[in-house]
User: What shape does this take?
Amino acid sequence: MDNPPLLIESICIRGGKIQLLQYHNRRANLARSALYDCHDLIDFSNIIDIKEANHTITKCRIVYGESIVKVEYIPYALRPIDSLKIIEIDENYGYKHKYLNRTKLDHYFSKKDEADDILMIQSGLVTDSYYCNVAFSKNGRWYTPKKPLLNGTKRASLINTQQIIEKEIHSKEIYGYESVRLFNALIAFGDIELSTCSIS
Assistant: This one.
């Protein structure tokens, strides 16, 4: 039998502090249990060397499986996203765990044409962008797709603090919302916000 695929966590270190640590630990340990039948718990705070994070925002990129494979520290700068292209994806495609191999996602991303990112639709429902989870605004409230491809750490945190609400968002409903925000472990909620008119 083939070995299970390697996994990855991209962890934000801001101002010398590890962000969303409990969410990254939980996701990694659930994935290792599901894929590798590993029940020893990883705590990334024992692996990350804060002294290596000598930038305002540092991305700590950890590749792992049963054990830690690689740890990298990369200066992070926000990449502007001003437009999205809707891409229909395979209804059977799954990205439940944060796999290192993103070949299929790369294929979808290659169809973005002149847009900066893609908005993936699966079985008629909005899921994620290539880089981020998403949330849509209507009447002062923010709604995030109920069935994302990946349950991101920032998404989990925002749901727990009731800043966003889970909801099935059909592709035909997109333009009934006012704006969309893209966010992930390194992109704060509100750093990237577009009018839904920027979605083609």
Notes: The chain is about 15% helix and 30% strand. Residues 84-198 form a domain with the D-amino Acid Aminotransferase; Chain A, domain 2 fold (CATH 3.20.10.10).
